[in-house]
Design brief:
disordered N terminus, Immunoglobulin-like, 23 strands, about 10% helix
Amino acid sequence: MKRRLFLAAGGALAGAGILRASGWAAERLGGDPLADFALTGQLTQGGWARGKAPLGASRLAFNGRAVRLAPDLTFLIAFDRDSGPRGELLAEFAGGGSSRGQFAISPRRWQIEHIPLGPRPGTPPNAEYARRREGELARINAARAQDHAAEGWRQKFIYPVYGRISGRFGAQRIYNGTPGSYHSGMDIATGTSGTPFVAPADGIVALAGENAFSLEGRLLMIDHGMGLGSAFLHCSSHAVKEGDIVRKGQFIGRIGATGRATGPHLHWSLKWRESRLDPLLFVGAMPGA
């Protein structure tokens, strides 16, 4: 039996809450429209959702790509900064049949700055820089490819450090009609180097660069499980090493200005698979802001 589902709540959820998909066949038969999918989170660009597949599901796909199910049938999905307006979940059952649910992903208004000048011409990288950068990107990609059985993805995230948000996710400059790269994380400034920061959720240290990377500086990456990972850039030092298990709130490093940085700050970015996410949607407003 194939069941097509729709969101009973209708539309997208801008804040935290629960959206339930109702069984179309059950409604047609006058039965109880039990929820086949229940999503909690931020159903918007740069956002995320946790859910639970229907009982008996053996496989799950989100927008046509397989999604791993935990033993209790819970799962995580997330939405890139430039995600399209619709999402679709498809659960398949071991004995045959499937359930399908569709939902809206709300758009956001990003901080866009129009500059009436062309982009500044850059100096072509020399061979030594290109060689070094190739090795750095290989290490970053290898860290992102790790898939540990961490449970941090289930948790409510916390701020790694309190301070002034000096750079917001998604902000972008457009130079005389030519878009520049958008800001891929959240910058938190405390005014000085050496400020300690903590793990926002449980995880495994996937990368702890002892030497500064060209752009990221001393880079620390944590795998929170289910494809979700944090990266902390420009650190002055690390308090953990690769392979360490870290717990939410544990001291893991100190803020710095290493790599390409104009001053001491912590750049915190989050990714789910290839999708870049807004840390603000995981933690809410900065306390005291």
